[in-house]
Amino acid sequence: MPEQISTADVAKVARLARLDLSDDALQRMTTQLDAMLEHFHDVDALDLDDVAPMTQPYPLTNVMRDDVIATSLDRDEVLAQAPDAEDGRFRVPPIIGLED
Amino acid sequence: MARTIREITAGVRDGSGTATANLEAALANVTAREDEINAFNLVLDEQARADAAAIDASAKAGDELGPLAGVTVALKDNLCTRGIPTTCSSKILDGWRPPYDATVVSVLRDAGAIVVGKTNMDEFAMGSSTETSAFGPTRNPFDTTRVPGGSSGGSAAAVAAGFADFSIGSDTGGSIRQPAALCGVVGVKPTYGYVSRYGLIAFASSLDQIGPFTTSVEDAAVVLDLIGGHDPLDSTSIPVERPSLVEAIRRDVAGLRVGRITDLPQGADPDVVERLEASFDALREAGATIVDVQVPAFTYGLTAYYLIAPAEASSNLARFDGVRYGLRVDAADTNAMYSATRSAGFGDEVKRRIMLGTYALSAGYYDAYYGKALKVRRLISDDLAKAYEQADVLLTPASPSVAFPLGSKNDPDNLLSMYLCDVYTIPANMAGHPGMSVPFGNGADGLPVGIQILAGTLNEVDMFRAAAALERAAGSEGVAK
Questions:
Q1: Burial profile A73-84: b = 16 or more Cβ within 10 angstroms, e = fewer
Q2: Can you give the residue ranges of every domain in chain B?
């Protein structure tokens, strides 16, 4: 298990999560995440080698519906709730020329 | 004492009462106390009055009435209501009006329930005190210097204060059962998949479940009988018949095996432990058999939960990016707009959990954290399944303490103190099992204590039998309601 989370790790995670954190917030977040992850060492006492991961509580798989056409949400009603829309589409700022 | 749903609907039907009178009684309570309690993000008094008048007109005309005709309900503000603001108590959904109703909302409206308002909550249901709401905390109706619990604190407080006959909340790690305990009302988290989650804004999709807050076990049975059921719009909704819970509570507990977890995590206050002991005595006296069981993995629930829930949340909350709903903070390009919007729109606790979840899922750490937490989840589920071979239900405290003062557990440098509020409730979410809190007398400072009843998958029947027996015992003990 990784030992301690660094400020650089936290900065990377913030980028992945699309959150801007000030230097102060980054420091605080590093301390708080480190404390949380530290508690996770509790489970080191458990033997988990032969345990299968559990991803869902009730075993339903491949839930399908009949392939029939149904009414979907009204496009104009949905777009009316967006911050910006144009010509029946969500409108966003430029997406070309990004840094990362 | 609050009237039951059965009494209210009978009155509307036979003309001895009206939906309007019932609604006005609730709204009078709102007028008197909402300023100090802050249970609602939005009160829908105008629409509610129109809905009540329509029901009264139908009753007068002799039309067929729905099973909840004239009963008032408050909805947690993470349930989508068409055309009505739905915020999750977050700034990021500012101004958003959903284009559809959650299934549970449609079912309740069709049954004749009158929606009084949308209730306050911890932001995106992340908290145990309703203090992380962007709209300020809700206060406990029993003592307004204290929290109502969370995350469904507004829903619990609304029922305790008589703002609605019942309310709906959601429970990801205890968010119905813990506030129910702290506000002295009944709160149920059914089996995962029992109630459709369609239209519930997701926090942690494999843990979230919808359930009711009520003033009696019977009311909880009535509501759950109605909102439980398979929904093709929720692919995790279980496609089996749900047995009648209204029938279940007519049965006594003779022969019911009630489990006492001998290795339950310590940390409950003495007044709460005393009530737990009294609850075993009450069920034994009512004819149940008390058996000792061990659930070793119970103790690891909190640890695994605080990786699994944030991991799922980090994924679910990625959709709040300033493109489709609510807030947008403008910036030069799309990536900068995403970050600017999310940074301004999310509060500190939500950011922390998104960060923790993103970290736990990121390359190089996935196996060490998220993967391992999923294995712990399996152990918890297996250990509980073994316990249910020996016992039909298990009793624990719903909360380690009675309602605590505002500001006493929200120090960001000691997050564990707040997270520990859910130590007894989390395992049921991990396993997908049902659990409920029933008021059972008072603890420190005369504040309500809730006993949690847990049962195996789809065994709501035995859970409700035990709940009804506890409620009867509390009544005969002369417990204040």
A1: eeeeebbebbbe
A2: 5-296+380-476
Gap from A91 CA to chain B (nearest CA, Å): 7
Residue tagged active-site, from B167, B170, B175, B401: B175
Residues 6+ apart with CB under 8 A from B27: B45, B48, B116
- Say which of A12, A31, A65 has its CB closest to residue B232: A65
* CATH architecture observed for domain B5-296+380-476: Alpha-Beta Complex (3.90)
Which of A2, A12, A93 minimises the CB distance to B368? A2
pLDDT digits (tens, 9 = 90+) for A35-79: 999 888 888 889 999 999 999 899 898 898 889 998 999 999 999
Q: Which residue has the tokens 């106390």?
A: B33
Of these residues, B58, B151, B237, B279, which one is catalytic? B151
Q: Which residues of B touch A53 (CB under 8 A)?
A: 371, 374-375, 377-378
pLDDT in tens, B191-226: 999 999 999 999 999 999 999 999 999 999 999 999
Residue of B191, B356, B369, B430 to mutate when probing chain A, most A C-beta within 10 A: B356
Q: How far apart, in whole angstroms, are the C-alpha atoms of residue B376 and residue B380?
A: 6
Task: List CB contacts of B350: < 8 A, sequence separation 6 or more.
Answer: B90, B123, B124, B126, B132, B313, B317
Contact between B259 and B394 (Cβ < 8 Å): yes
- B90 is annotated as an active-site residue: no
Contact in structure between B455 and B462 (CB atoms under 8 Å):
yes
